[in-house]
Design a protein that fits this description.
The protein has 77 residues and is mostly helical. It is 95% helix and 0% strand. The chain is rod-shaped. 0% of the residues are buried. The mean pLDDT is 89.
Length: 77
């Protein structure tokens, strides 16, 4: 009977260890997914800022060209 009890205890120990491994792997996968989502958000934010700055530069260049054309037009060219 003692041997059966020991085997049963060992089975439960192995099952518990496997459950812990699966739980740890799941937690690790969740943390990795959260990190990837964060990194993607950061990249998207940086890209949006670059596009915004590019649009601002284009707008300033267009205003400058408009001002140049107006001054050239008023100068009689």
């Amino acid at each position: 009977m003692h041997t059966m009890h020991t085997m049963h205890t060992m089975e439960w120990s192995v099952m518990y260890a496997m459950e812990q491994l699966v739980s740890e792997r799941s937690r690790s996968n969740l943390e990795q997914a959260e990190q990837l989502r964060y990194e993607r958000r950061v990249r998207a934010l940086r890209r949006a800022r670059r596009l915004e700055h590019k649009a601002e530069r284009r707008m300033l260049e267009a205003r400058r060209r408009t001002a140049d054309l107006r001054s050239a037009d008023s100068a009689g060219y």
